[in-house]
Amino acid sequence: GESVGLHLPTLSVQEGDNSIINCAYSNSASDYFIWYKQESGKGPQFIIDIRSNMDKRQGQRVTVLLNKTVKHLSLQIAATQPGDSAVYFCAEGGGSYIPTFGRGTSLIVHP
Amino acid sequence: GAGVSQSPRYKVAKRGQDVALRCDPISGHVSLFWYQQALGQGPEFLTYFQNEAQLDKSGLPSDRFFAERPEGSVSTLKIQRTQQEDSAVYLCASSLVAIGELFFGEGSRLTVL
Hints:
The structure holds two protein chains of two kinds.
Chain A: E1 10-14, E2 19-24, E3 32-38, E4 45-51, E5 56-58, E6 62-67, E7 72-77, E8 86-93, E9 100-101, E10 105-110
Parallel strand pairs in A: 1-10
Antiparallel strand pairs in A: 2-7, 3-4, 3-8, 5-6, 6-7, 8-9, 8-10
Chain B: E1 5-7, E2 10-13, E3 19-24, E4 31-37, E5 44-50, E6 53-56, E7 65-68, E8 75-79, E9 88-95, E10 103-104, E11 108-112
Parallel strand pairs in B: 2-11
Antiparallel strand pairs in B: 1-3, 3-8, 4-5, 4-9, 5-6, 7-8, 9-10, 9-11
């Protein structure tokens, strides 16, 4: 959901559950999308990417879904683990391919 | 080194002081990006280099911000006459090709008093 000020949208799950993190993008010209994970005090780390000629891509325990009609992106994490706790950003690349980051969602995994 | 290295990791500056932040990208990476990340926000684009050429500096917030990458490797982000609103984490990222996965450093946290 939407948040105000410094409070990030937060998703809390139990260890072992599946997590779904959503992202809406605004630029219809964007044709490259990336998910990053950022742990406290560290730089963002690449998770998975997808190009606009695809609607689904799978990695290890992660799946990205792209719905260009409604400009929506989601990241699914299977069997979520405490080590998955972090802030997750989606980034979009338009014609310039300079990634533009969204605000982020904080994922909290409870043991 | 194995990853992108940034220094200093932490910098405290008095308002009006000049600062310089250094980025050592992964060897051989063509593209280099600087981002600014305020607390609780996503990274905001500042500037982009392809080798030594600064192809986009549209994100630099004012003419107090200057970046260079003179030999197409190490880059320096310089902020002159720092202001409190400059307090943020400055992230550097490099990429092997023009379009691809960004590898980020751990950032330089700047606090302006």
